Request: fold
Amino acid sequence: MLSRVFGYGRRAFDSLSEQEILALAISSEEDDARIYRSYADGLEEDFPHTARMFEALAEEEDNHRAALIDLHRTRFGERIPLIRREHVKGYYERKPDWLVRPLGVETVRAQAEEMERQACAFYVAAAKRASDASTRKLLGDLAAAEQRHGSLAQRLEERHVPDDARKAEEETERRQFILTYVQPGLAGLMDGSVSTLAPIFAAAFATHDTWQTFLVGLAASLGAGISMGFTEAASDDGRLSGRGSPVKRGFASGIMTALGGLGHALPYLIPDFWTATTVAIVIVFFELWAIAFIQNRYMETPFLRAAFQVVLGGGLVFATGVLIGSA
Reply:
């Protein structure tokens, strides 16, 4: 671990010979082509047009690697030294594709732009250290090619991702985001905000003890969050429904459930009962309107209908808690 952080056991870039620089460039182009193909494989099912764009970028990297191998064969023979990114101090690294999953379209496009920028910087630095004219020329040409990759990617996108296909892919990505994060999170927020109203306000009006009310609210919120999180994760593995990772859905649901309850439990840390209750009621009001806004924004529920449903339901649960606590 320390060797990766501080560069122990790595070669300095300035210490590499021209043969080693070529070998590093060959392995880097090979890795980049594999990364682009892994992006294409990950995007193929939901974003087939963008997947073909990355296939084309991988082929471009294959052409660069072939040119570098031909140059190495001409100058140094058939045996290519084994040297990779992780062997060189300060050299840019590549994230494995599983670290950037799920492969959202914008995520991989941004990653590809960064890859091209880093590759261009490497070829510029490598060309400065080359003394052989043919080597210097090829490295300079590759630097220019990587710099042009931005426009190449744009041209490939225009060819493989027409406007209608791009809109369809964006809609698919938005739908996946809603199914994986928004829908479970909204269900959790509704459950946490509404279902904890009765026990928290019942405890508040029954005891008039802010600390005891806070403990009840804390227990109810965290318990509901844990329950909702495990229920969401266990209810559907996402393979058939297409709702995405059960772990991500479980975290989204559990965290939002806990936050929904804690919002009106935390005010009871205020020692004065009526001040704490007033603040809690104001927070409940904003929680319910936030739920209505999310329903309108992402679930396309008419705002007035969403507000009526949420406020009515929340009001009934709130009244239930106050009546029971005052009995």
Q: What stands out?
A: The two ends are 62 Å apart (CA to CA). Residues 1-7 have pLDDT under 50 and may be disordered. The longest helix spans residues 163-195.
